[in-house]
Amino acid sequence: MLDPLAPARTDGRVRIGRREVAYTMAGRGEPLLLVHGLGSTRQTWNGILDGLAVTHTVIAPDLPGHGESDPPAGDYSLGAFAVVLRNLLIALGQRSATLVGHSLGGGIALQFAYQFPERTERLALIGSGGLGQQLTPMLRAATLPGAKVVVAVLARFPESFTRGFLRGVTRAVPRFLARPDSGPVAEDLHRLIDPRQRRTFVRTARNVIDWRGQTVSATESLALLTDLPVLLAWGTDDRVIPRYHHRAVAEQLTVPQLLEIAGAGHYPHITAPGEVLAALAEFLVSTKAFHYTEERWRELLTSR
User: Fold this and answer.
1) Could you give all domains of the chain from N- to C-terminal order, each with its CATH number?
2) Can you tell me the distance from the alpha carbon of 28 to that of 13, in angstroms, rounded to the nearest whole number?
3) Which positions are annotated as active-site residues?
4) Quick one: signal sequence residues (predicted)?
5) What's the whole-model pTM score?
6) pLDDT above 60: residue 253
């Protein structure tokens, strides 16, 4: 249930080129751009959006082809999604923002920081993709031939049935999925009954994943983020993306803030929103926004 005392939310659509992006906006202050994961929508942030909007201008879009946003013209790459986010900020009158990304959204946020460092103030990565190859077999299977048909069949089951089935699977095969994640996964899967969103899910997955795991990695470019404030958050029971990805990345950053949530899975912003909100609030108040200069960026590029 939404907090009646929270800052009012505004749902809107903005035309970027020939296509529209749907978004929710709330609050005042420094801008925060919330980037959801693969197969999800901006509704994934409902548990923390109002809390963040007390002190910040929060912008939560549906990525192209997700939720209520129009699908891409044909480019489902991380770079193309990052460009859409850049254009969205411009359209809404925001020069820069702190990006908060979950899963695929973390990978997009990282790509955004590399492409548009002058528009990036901080990064908060929650169960982020793009930090290593290892990935759950469930997502690797989405890249195989016939995946669209299989996903279409699975999406037609009632959400309550899928949720119950996944709970049973987590009890029988604990390594398959964290128990708290059965609800969010069932919700995302049922959403793929929409052919447009199903096509986006499969095509996006194939841009960043193959049968072996993640094919796009940001780790080689982490040196460019030396001066950027970064928060890394993950659940100790994440079965989708290994938790050691975040620990390994933390060792390559200068002074990252870390949040490890005991018992949480891949969706801590949904299943443990209080802990995530508190960590984000502390991160935002204790760090200064990154200030891009071409001289410093050149130094980082050429000294690697």
Assistant:
1) 9-135+214-302 (3.40.50.1820)
2) 19
3) 103, 238, 266
4) none
5) 0.92
6) yes
